[in-house]
Amino acid sequence: MAVGRGVDDSSSNAPEVGSSDPSQTILPTVLHMIEDNTLHFKNDDSEHGQRLHSGFLVLKENMDKVTTLSEALRKEAHLYDFDENTPGNGFRSFNNIVHQAVVSVFSLCKHVCTGRDSLLFRKGHYVR
Q1: Which residues in the chain land under pLDDT 70?
Q2: Residue 117 included in any domain
Q3: Per the database record, which ranges form the Hormone-sensitive lipase N-terminal domain (predicted)?
């Protein structure tokens, strides 16, 4: 684990898209990094620091909503198939898109967590 950053270096590779329950494998780490970044930028008085803080707050709210809906949809998707051998709905595609979004958020949070204490870290780059 990186010292003082709350990032587990052993989880640097995101899980594969085809895993059975992707939201449960990576989500706790993503939520932890979002919370860590929120706390880090809470007392930052700069405009970019405050924008990062509010952005991570909104991201947490939306992650909670989307992953809850995605999980409910994943459990019900089989009910809308043509038959047991022919999946015939877009719910699985939606869940794959949600999972890809979670992986992207994981990557973003990891970059911010690991680079925010660097002299070369530019907050403005992340708030465009």
Answers
A1: 1-24
A2: yes
A3: 29-127
